[in-house]
Amino acid sequence: MTSEESEIARLRAAILDYLRRNPDAADTLGGIVSWWLPAESVRFDASRVERVLEELVREGFVVKSVLVEGTVLYARAPGGKG
């Protein structure tokens, strides 16, 4: 496993762990970087976090919602997957 793959795996685990502990959480990319991953935010830039979130959306662990004004929110997928 490369160092990038290892970092992505840690980021992925941190997001899923946060959602397990806070099943009703929903936030923007900026909020996730700032609040869900405070210890990781120095290590992971927003583009990497967004890439991992989009992977989790495709896999059914996370849902992505776009509000009327265009704000994008990420949250735990219904049914508790993840």
Task: Characterise the protein shown here.
With 82 residues, this protein is of the alpha+beta class. The protein has one domain (3-80): Winged helix-like DNA-binding domain superfamily/Winged helix DNA-binding domain (Arc Repressor Mutant, subunit A, Orthogonal Bundle), CATH 1.10.10. The chain contains three helices and three strands, in the order αβααββ. It has a three-stranded antiparallel sheet with strand order 1-3-2. α1 (3-21) crosses α3 (46-59). The longest helix has 19 residues, at 3-21. The mean pLDDT is 89.
Q: What would the keywords be for this entry?
A:
alpha+beta, Arc Repressor Mutant, subunit A
Can you summarize this structure?
The protein is α+β, with helices and mostly antiparallel strands.
Shape: globular
Distance between the termini: 23 Å
Widest sheet, order of strands: 1-3-2
Name the CATH superfamily assignment.
Winged helix-like DNA-binding domain superfamily/Winged helix DNA-binding domain
Q: Which residue ranges are poorly predicted, with pLDDT under 50 across at least 5 consecutive positions?
A: none
- Tell me the helix content: 40-55%
Reading off the top of the CATH hierarchy, the class is best stated as Mainly Alpha
Radius of gyration, whole Å: 12 Å
Following the backbone from N to C, one meets helices and strands in this order, namely HEHHEE
The CATH topology assignment is Arc Repressor Mutant, subunit A
